[in-house]
Amino acid sequence: MVAGARRGDGIAAIGETDDQADIRGLVARSFEVFGKPAFVDVAAGYRFRGGDPADEIRVDASFGIRPGKRLLLIAQSFNQIGNGRWKGPLPLKQRIHKLQLAALFDLTESLQLIGAAFFSPMGRDSLDEKGASLGIGLKF
What we know:
Blueprint: E1 20-33, E2 36-49, E3 56-68, E4 71-82, E5 95-106, E6 111-124, E7 130-138
Antiparallel strand pairs: 1-2, 2-3, 3-4, 4-5, 5-6, 6-7
């Protein structure tokens, strides 16, 4: 990623003003649970940063099941682990763990209604996040 903000642009993007690069690997498998189609995937990666905040190890996992023809349920875990402390004025060693539950309902063959809720059960030097989203998706 190439940073859009620079240090003199203000504090809105604090810590996100330097270029970054990610490398990731993904393992996925589909199977059946009680005769219903399901999948699991696990992604692991490393984010290299040109400056603050520190580089990160990232591990994400998803489990999805289709209990009905038009409904897909997904449970996800998103994890970011800072590799060292920030070099800047705040001596942070960030760790972020977030869980999300989502439901995708097929309105038509190409249109979906998407609802999700997430929260961060634990972390270090991170926000205590809770939220929900509702959207429309287009399959193509």
